[in-house]
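Hi V.,

You were right to ask for the full record rather than a summary. Here it is.
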Amino acid sequence: MKKNASKSGPKLLQHDQHFLDQGFKSLAGVDEAGRGPLAGPVVASAVIVRDFLFSSDINDSKKMTPKAREIAYEEILEKSVVGIGVIDSPLIDEINIFEATMRAMQEALTRLGEIPDCVLIDGPKAPKLPFKQIPIINGDAVSFSIACASVVAKVTRDRIMKYYDRIYPEYGFGRHKGYGTQEHVEALKKHGPCKIHRRSFEPVKSLCKLF
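Predicted structure:
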């Protein structure tokens, strides 16, 4: 892993550099997208950055425009090892969103294809895996590696929801990505839930009784 300087998020880079200076050679960042929506999967990404010299301005994905995220996504894939985990709505309903998120993170880390020396995870808790793991609250605003993971997870999930928008155009998934906007709730009331709605989430749960 190169320890290059970058114009992208210097504070985020400094945070990760602290761990590299401790002797960790392989540092993975992990984040998720889609815990709160009423429909669609929860997606987690694990990223081991190989080259920190980025031309993209990497940040917490929520603070980036869709276009900036897409550009950053491509550069992250070029300069990193990436693993992605996707847990769909039926399993979310079966095991709850917290457990589904942990499982998505486990899948993402497993799919890296290598064992990192240290894993930085966005959030207060880490999945059960035999890695050194450090949970960091608001980690996507603190760590460069986690910020990269947040971009990959967000772009991946947005693309999934755009695909579902073609299958279920009446809900507007391409616009709100499954979140509980007024448009989405009104479509739910009119058409009822579809196969990708989370039936354990309100108001989907209540509306299921009407259709």
